[in-house]
UniProtKB/TrEMBL annotation:
<dbReference type="GO" id="GO:0010181">
    <property type="term" value="F:FMN binding"/>
</dbReference>
<keyword id="KW-0479">Metal-binding</keyword>
<feature type="domain" description="FAD/NAD(P)-binding">
    <location>
        <begin position="329"/>
        <end position="576"/>
    </location>
</feature>
<dbReference type="GO" id="GO:0051536">
    <property type="term" value="F:iron-sulfur cluster binding"/>
</dbReference>
<protein>
    <submittedName>
        <fullName>Dimethylamine/trimethylamine dehydrogenase</fullName>
        <ecNumber>1.5.8.1</ecNumber>
        <ecNumber>1.5.8.2</ecNumber>
    </submittedName>
</protein>
<keyword id="KW-0288">FMN</keyword>
<keyword id="KW-0285">Flavoprotein</keyword>
<keyword id="KW-0408">Iron</keyword>
<feature type="domain" description="NADH:flavin oxidoreductase/NADH oxidase N-terminal">
    <location>
        <begin position="13"/>
        <end position="278"/>
    </location>
</feature>
<dbReference type="InterPro" id="IPR023753">
    <property type="entry name" value="FAD/NAD-binding_dom"/>
</dbReference>
<keyword id="KW-0560">Oxidoreductase</keyword>
<keyword id="KW-0411">Iron-sulfur</keyword>
<dbReference type="InterPro" id="IPR051793">
    <property type="entry name" value="NADH:flavin_oxidoreductase"/>
</dbReference>
<comment type="similarity">
    <text>In the N-terminal section; belongs to the NADH:flavin oxidoreductase/NADH oxidase family.</text>
</comment>
<dbReference type="GO" id="GO:0047133">
    <property type="term" value="F:dimethylamine dehydrogenase activity"/>
</dbReference>
<dbReference type="GO" id="GO:0050470">
    <property type="term" value="F:trimethylamine dehydrogenase activity"/>
</dbReference>
<dbReference type="Pfam" id="PF00724">
    <property type="entry name" value="Oxidored_FMN"/>
</dbReference>
Length: 610
């Protein structure tokens, strides 16, 4: 952030508008360079996208308008000539500070509909009639001037890059790869030292695997190298080395941007270089990482449970503490995400590990979920851990092994971890219902597990969502694909509201609309009868009836913890020494929570006591 008027509160943006900011960011640059890498920093002004609420400033815009993304009751003011001169000075000063902090690459940011510079390029946000508005050359003027200013400020010992969105996919715009997006690159082709290109805005640039394939930005960015001699870096939800290499060999990009894949596996480049492709924790594209940014907590990752815990817990994504007594045996009951992560971590530490699961496939909840629409990539959570465990001589794996409490006692393990998961409720108890929904026990009422098993109803089906994440919309899509006429009803004000944090909400809505799924929000299902449901509006209490052939209740899960409690009774009777539960068996949640629980159990186990 180059000035207080770019404030994104409550997001904690790093700042470069004061000399007092230099020391802390110098530590960041030094830490990056310590490992032989170049340190780069994006210098940005959010324009009308930043409400500047923390500093109580007026947001800036080429033309007065409301901020793009916030409900703040404030209008961004029109930037005048004096403001433009100040803006250019803010950029120059921030660039000098970045260089003095030790950064090797300074970015001018013009992307994601989060940039004043991008607002000047767009005819929808730039209605000016002076030399900074109107025709293309006028609208690109401030970006050209800013790049020139920054290059002059840092000299030839610091590279200047531009991060530029060549296409706005959020709305109809003149910024497209066929129109002004291309013209900007052509007009400024050799001005920056590096082009970092993408699409806008974030739900399209960092779209999830549910809605975007690898390399999905190629059709929008493949022209850039044809019109510039400068290096080009880009992104595109890359996860596999083959896809990355393909873009480079075919001349689409010179460098691969791999933020999310590097969160999943920080040692991704090393493993590619060493040919250790099977050891890569490949990103599943679930966007658990973006969800934590959106909710203002430290980052987390489904595939890499150490992400965000390196400082707080001292966890390392590759290294684990050695076993204090490698002869100790641990039995893990349950081969889902939590159990597999616990078993992998413990085996890596050197303990003797056995994992037993009652099913015919590894994966727990993911055995079925990965087969549902758009969720196949999530199966990598299982594939990576099973692949690693199968190479470990101290790890034994048993499928089709339903264990009773007596079976567990007979195993004589030094420690038992119960990771038996959770089951979806069928009674309708959830966020809005503390008691079962009347009629939930009728034969035409389903839970998600029947749908996951392929037991599909026919006709007109209501999917009722109080879970608020992905399951209800996935079930609705599965039923629509099978020929059902589907109505999705939720108590929330948006369908699957948590998905705004995973950058999926707009795509969820578009997908359901395309499949003809009726969306009803702010509504509760209050009772179910044969061929009918009664609903109530959340805000008014107004009731109505709807004819249905079937109802699917997606309202919550309940831990499958019977075995755990039986073992606790055995422990109290002195028949077993050490037992714990993890993952959904401890408390149903996201898969990222399950793998974190598994990592925690694996790291913290000590044979002399927990």
């Amino acid at each position: 952030m180059i000035h207080q008027t770019s404030d994104h509160a409550p997001l904690p943006d790093p700042c470069f508008y004061s000399d007092s900011h230099v020391p802390q960011l110098a530590r960041v640059a030094a830490a990056v360079k310590e490992h032989g890498a170049l340190a780069g920093v994006e210098l940005a002004h959010a324009g009308a996208s930043g409400p500047a609420a923390s500093h109580r400033e007026h947001p800036l815009s080429p033309t007065a308008k409301f901020p793009h993304y916030y409900y703040n009751p404030i209008t961004a003011r029109t930037i005048d000539k004096q403001d433009i001169a100040q803006f250019r000075r803010w950029y120059r000063d921030a660039a000098v500070r970045a260089k003095s902090a030790g950064f090797d690459i300074v970015y001018v940011y013009c992307a994601h509909n989060l940039s004043l510079l991008q607002d000047f390029l767009d005819v929808k946000t730039n209605k000016r009639t002076d030399e900074y508005g109107g025709v293309f050359e006028n609208r690109v003027r401030l970006l050209r001037e800013t790049l020139s200013d920054v290059k002059d400020a840092v000299g030839d010992t610091c590279a200047v890059a531009v991060r530029f969105a060549v296409e706005d996919r959020r709305r109809a715009s003149n910024i497209t790869a066929l129109e002004d997006g291309r013209r900007v690159v052509e007009a400024l082709s050799d001005v920056p030292d590096l082009w970092d290109v993408n699409v806008s805005d974030w739900p399209w640039d960092s779209g999830s695997s549910r809605f975007f394939e690898e390399g999905q930005q190629e059709p929008f960015i493949d022209f850039v190298k044809k019109v510039t001699n400068k290096p080009v870096v880009g992104v595109g939800r890359f996860t596999s080395p083959d896809a990355m290499v393909s873009q480079i060999k075919r001349g689409v990009l010179d460098l691969i941007g791999a933020a999310r894949p590097s969160i999943a596996d920080p040692f991704l480049p090393n493993k590619i270089n060493e040919g250790r492709h099977d050891d890569i924790r490949e990103c599943i594209g679930c966007n658990a990482c973006t969800a934590e940014v959106m909710t203002y907590v430290r980052i987390r990752c489904t595939q890499n449970p150490s992400a965000g815990e390196e400082h707080t817990l001292g966890w390392h994504p590759e290294n684990v503490p050695p076993a204090d007594d490698p002869s100790k045996t641990i039995l893990v009951v349950g081969g889902g995400p939590a159990g597999l992560e616990a078993g992998h971590t413990l085996a890596k530490r050197g303990y003797q590990v056995s994992i037993a699961d009652g099913g015919s496939e590894w994966g727990g909840r993911l055995v079925r979920e990965r087969k549902m629409p758009r969720l196949s990539a999530w199966g990598r959570v299982v594939d990576y851990r099973v692949g690693q465990l199968q190479t470990m001589p101290n790890a034994n794996m048993y499928l089709n092994s339903v264990l009773t409490a007596d079976d567990v006692i007979g195993f004589e393990a030094d420690h038992v971890i119960v990771a038996t998961g959770a089951k979806w409720r069928k009674d309708g108890i959830g966020r809005n219902h503390d008691e079962p929904i009347p009629g939930a026990d009728l034969p035409h009422v389903y839970g998600p597990e029947e749908i996951l098993d392929g037991n599909l109803p026919r006709g007109e089906v209501v999917v009722y969502d109080e879970d608020y994440f992905y399951m209800a919309t996935v079930v609705a899509e599965r039923l629509a694909r099978s020929g059902c006429k589907v109505t999705y009803i939720t108590t929330a004000s948006d369908p699957a509201p948590w998905t705004i944090n995973t950058l999926e909400l707009v795509h969820v809505i578009n997908a359901m609309n395309e499949m003809g799924i009726e969306i009803v929000v702010g509504t509760s299902v209050t009772s179910i009868s044969s061929g009918n449901i009664t609903t109530s509006r959340i805000l008014t209490g107004a009731e109505s009836n709807r004819k249905v052939d079937a109802v699917v209740l997606v309202t919550g899960q309940i831990s499958d913890d019977v075995l755990y409690h039986e073992l606790i009774a055995k422990r109290e009777a002195g028949e077993i020494a050490s037992v714990e539960r993890i993952g959904d068996c401890l408390g149903p949640g996201q898969i990222a929570q399950a793998t974190k629980d598994g990592r925690k159990a694996g790291i913290e186990f000590c044979s002399t006591g927990r």
